[in-house]
User: Which sequence fits this backbone?
């Protein structure tokens, strides 16, 4: 996360750290159910074996030495069949839901954001020198309608309809490498709903180059189907 | 759509103080509108309707002339023609308040006989709106509204009334309200409230002031002209061809030489960006090609290479002559007075702690919540749009009326704000009391639906289906299907079958923010709120953290 700030510990209890079998953080993810994690498909390119991955929950520091940390193996991987950058992980055993580990809410199918919601991204990814390395960081910005984001001076038609843009037009803050797969959540009354999965960007925090996120509301039927059938 | 209410502008929560009025009891707002249309004691410009009491007040004034108050359970309906200061076509329906000719000569009153004896008078033409000395068109003159003048040498003259932008557009069509619904290439427009074939974020409820009605071409986002999403799956959106009005546009407010708000009215001559780059001329396409040209934005004073804000950016900006920096914001001196420096104080500094909850009636609340209970964004206190009001920092210096934060400047029951929805004047804010507890432990996983406790409410209790049948003051509720002691046709099991108006149980069929209520069996009290406790929350709910987020957004 470029700029933004270090979050209050455990204030984003659905944020998980996706790790290699050697416990190295490389991507984010979101707990959507005690036994299911949503992440980006491109985070699973290294290996198709579930045993290559681990999920860490309930941590604030990347070092993951807190007593609140829970570690789970991955039982199965499910990549979206039409190659959208979204994937599900089934945990070998469910996480224990407590004050430090709580799932996020999912949006209604095909729900759209009007651009006035408060949305936030979190992660342990690259800070580009803005500090907070090793801690879960957060930043917030508005969602930008695809019509604006696809203008020539922005992302020039690169953003597909199953994706959404979010960021500050003049740059300065953004998600970055290592935040991929993590959540873009928006406040709906008194709860956070995950509307995006951190996917890609042109650099990080560059002016006129907001981050691009997979639009979770487009995949609710797929998510429900995978969870029900597995 | 054919309803009598289509010709009215609706505002929830507004009440007008002491205008000339008549009071009636009507069964519906439509019936109240008919009373307004047929009012013969005065020209009815608006009416107030309270659904619970079924009280109808027809009014001679509207929000342009009367003082507006906040009130719950009231809805103000104002006749559109009396709010418009523009004309449609020849302007025979024009009922605005322009009262001088195109040459600036004040108009003669229609009821006067000097300096000119009029042929058109209020007595002879009672339906022509010949009030005061307002410009009117009682004779269907092709040149539009006119008036007799106060200059003895000039009997009458026409007035400069801008077009309402129904058949044509001014400027870039930001205020275009017409019904063109096809694009420049002939594609039919998609409805704004539809997500097919193109899903989008331009939802009418999120842009309440932009009139995103039906599938009409609109310009809600600073484009050079109106546009729409198309019904062609292969073309997401396209511009529309709207003719430009031939009459002059509305006279804009004088520009400023300093920065106020977003600087949309900045007309100074700063032409250097915040990083020191020289601005590119707006009429030039080099080094950066762009569409923010004087031709596309004729009303935005895109002169020379002066910093401007023609498209709703957060402050004035310009394209730069630096090839590597397409555009940048400019640093414009602020018009606001500087706050006096706080004198140094001996002793340790104390960080100001703001709570996101309120104590008592919330008069001391100083947090930054800026959304209402229904999710509407709050209007800034120093803004008069969309709602004019007198709750300003100057009038209430101790109320901390900053930005658009929820506050309670008038000792209401809890923090509130005016909303950015033109149809809803104000609402209470989405804040809990600081002493609300949430201690009940329920051993169920978070996404499971909990067994509802029927005698408690969530939110405003619109879904309440319990059996409490007494009001907060101990009065017994009247049966919803009964007409005694209080007759009412508005909220009955027949008219609101989905609201569960069973027996005499407390219910909330109108989504009242104060919760369930009922008509009472006390002949002296038509209706009253019920006192039903809030349901305790589950221990863990999705999307709700036990630790408060910092929310260090950079918006």
Assistant:
């Amino acid at each position: 996360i470029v700029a933004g700030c270090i979050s209050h510990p455990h204030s984003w209890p659905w944020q998980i750290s996706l790790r290699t079998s050697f416990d190295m953080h490389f991507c984010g993810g979101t707990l959507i159910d005690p036994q299911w994690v949503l992440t980006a498909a491109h985070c699973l390119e290294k290996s198709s074996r579930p045993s290559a991955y681990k999920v860490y929950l309930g941590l604030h520091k990347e070092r993951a030495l807190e007593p609140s940390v829970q570690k789970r193996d991955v039982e199965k991987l499910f990549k979206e069949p039409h190659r959208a950058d979204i994937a599900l992980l089934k945990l070998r055993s469910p996480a224990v839901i407590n004050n430090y580990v709580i799932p996020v809410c999912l949006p209604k199918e095909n729900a759209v954001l009007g651009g006035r919601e408060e949305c936030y991204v979190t992660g342990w990814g690259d800070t580009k020198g803005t500090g907070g390395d090793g801690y879960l960081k957060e930043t917030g910005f508005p969602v930008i309608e695809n019509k604006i984001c696809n203008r020539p001076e922005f992302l020039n038609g690169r953003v597909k309809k199953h994706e959404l843009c979010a960021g500050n037009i003049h740059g300065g803050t953004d998600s970055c490498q290592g935040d991929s797969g993590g959540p873009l959540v928006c406040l709906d009354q008194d709860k956070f709903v995950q509307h995006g999965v951190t996917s890609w960007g042109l650099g990080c925090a560059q002016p006129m180059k907001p981050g691009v996120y997979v639009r979770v509301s487009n995949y609710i039927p797929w998510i429900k189907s995978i969870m029900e059938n597995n | 759509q054919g309803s009598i209410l289509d010709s009215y502008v609706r505002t929830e929560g507004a009440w007008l103080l002491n205008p000339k009025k008549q009071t009636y009891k009507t069964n519906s707002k439509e019936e109240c509108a008919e009373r307004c249309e047929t009012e013969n004691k005065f020209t009815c410009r608006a009416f107030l309707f309270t659904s619970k009491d079924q009280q109808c007040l027809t009014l001679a004034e509207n929000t342009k002339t009367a003082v507006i108050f906040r009130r719950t359970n009231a809805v103000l309906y104002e006749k559109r023609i009396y709010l418009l200061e523009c004309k449609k076509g020849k302007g025979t329906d024009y009922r605005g308040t322009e009262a001088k000719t195109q040459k600036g000569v004040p108009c003669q009153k229609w009821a006067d006989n000097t300096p000119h004896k009029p042929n058109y008078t209020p007595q002879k033409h009672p339906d022509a709106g010949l009030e005061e000395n307002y410009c009117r068109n009682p004779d269907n003159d092709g040149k539009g509204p006119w008036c007799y003048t106060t200059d003895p040498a000039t009997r009458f003259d026409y007035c400069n009334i801008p077009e309402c932008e129904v058949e044509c557009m001014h400027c870039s069509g930001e205020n275009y309200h017409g019904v063109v619904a096809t694009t420049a290439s002939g594609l039919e427009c998609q409805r704004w409230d539809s997500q097919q074939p193109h899903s989008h974020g331009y939802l009418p409820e999120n842009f309440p002031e932009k009139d995103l009605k039906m599938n009409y071409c609109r310009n809600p986002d600073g484009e050079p002209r109106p546009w729409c999403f198309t019904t062609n799956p292969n073309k997401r959106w396209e511009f529309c061809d709207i003719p430009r009005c031939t009459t002059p546009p509305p006279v804009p407010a004088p520009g400023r030489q300093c920065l106020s708000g977003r600087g949309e009215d900045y007309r100074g001559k700063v032409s250097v960006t915040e990083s020191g780059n020289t601005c590119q001329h707006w009429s030039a396409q080099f080094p950066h090609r762009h569409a923010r040209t004087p031709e596309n934005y004729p009303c935005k004073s895109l002169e020379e290479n002066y910093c401007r804000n023609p498209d709703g950016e957060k402050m004035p900006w310009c394209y730069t002559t630096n090839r590597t920096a397409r555009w940048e914001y400019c640093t414009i001196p602020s018009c606001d007075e500087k706050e006096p420096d706080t004198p140094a104080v001996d002793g340790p500094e104390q960080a100001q702690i703001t709570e996101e909850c309120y104590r008592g009636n919330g008069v001391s609340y100083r947090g930054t919540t800026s959304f209402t209970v229904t999710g509407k964004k709050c209007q800034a206190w120093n803004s008069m749009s969309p709602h004019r009001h007198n709750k300003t920092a100057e009038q209430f210096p101790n109320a901390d009326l900053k930005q658009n934060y929820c506050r309670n400047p008038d000792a209401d029951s809890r923090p509130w704000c005016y909303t950015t929805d033109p149809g809803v004047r104000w609402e209470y804010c989405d804040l809990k009391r600081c002493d609300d507890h949430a201690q009940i432990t329920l051993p169920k996983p978070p996404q499971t639906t909990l067994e509802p406790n029927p005698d408690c409410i969530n939110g405003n209790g619109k879904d309440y289906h319990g059996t409490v049948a007494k009001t907060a003051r101990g009065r017994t509720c009247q049966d919803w299907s009964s007409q005694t002691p209080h007759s009412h046709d508005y909220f009955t099991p027949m008219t609101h079958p989905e609201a569960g108006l069973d027996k005499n149980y407390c219910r909330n069929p109108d989504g009242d923010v104060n919760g369930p209520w009922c008509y009472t069996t006390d002949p002296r009290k038509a209706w009253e709120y019920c006192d039903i406790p809030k349901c305790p929350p589950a221990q863990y709910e999705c999307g709700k953290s036990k630790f408060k987020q910092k929310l260090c957004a950079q918006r």
User: Anything to note?
Assistant: The first helix of chain A runs from residue 146 to 149. Residues 149 and 211 of chain A are 10 Å apart (CA to CA). The radius of gyration of chain A is 16 Å.
